Amino acid sequence: MRLGKSIPATLEHLVFVPTSEGREFPTLIAMHGRGADENDLASLVLELEIPNLLLITPRAPFDFPYGGNAWYSAGQEGVPDPETFRTSMELLQKFLEQVKVGYPVDRRRLTMLGFSQGAMMAYATTFSNPSMFHGLVALSGYLPTRWSSQFQPSNLTDFPVFISHGLNDMIIPIKFGREAVKALTDAGANVTYREYLMGHEIREETIRDLRQWILNTLQVTQG
Length: 223
Hints:
The protein is of the alpha/beta class. It is 30% helix and 24% strand. It has one domain: Alpha/Beta hydrolase fold, catalytic domain (Rossmann fold, 3-Layer(aba) Sandwich). An 8-stranded mixed β-sheet has the order 1-2-4-3-7-8-9-10, with helices on both faces. The chain has a two-stranded antiparallel sheet with strand order 5-6. Strand 9 (160-166), helix 4 and strand 10 form a beta-alpha-beta unit.
């Protein structure tokens, strides 16, 4: 996998393309958390060492006052400000259409991944149009149904989902990860859930388990 040339799009982003050419690739859209940028999850996914995976890491559109970027302004308990959240959703949906045209994306194997705020965006985007995606990865996040009935998990029969959470997460407590597992399982999704002895972070154990899930779910060849 190597850093490729980014196309003009509604969101600034990095794209990492497989070294092989001439075909479409399983694709991961990886969305960072609050106070980070497009470089944050790029380093994590590169650690997965999956060569024939197309990776796209968008930058959230709003500046975070303490550095980095954010997908929305957050109020009490992380509840999004409706205006900034709506703007990000619109930009993200346009961005997805642009990258499907501009990069060698296998549309049958397009998966959303997010950490923290990015996980909430991944949930909301996938729930809005589950038929567009092949899978969903939510790392240390919470469901948008906590504050809006618009984004209910539905039509997810056998839909592959990977959820992980830290037992000692003080930013988004573990109860929200468990709540997501129940809601998606009730909606028929095929949920893989992992809890780790960690805080609001991603550790080596997460990468190991996520790598196996991606290989199995997206059927990525390693040659």
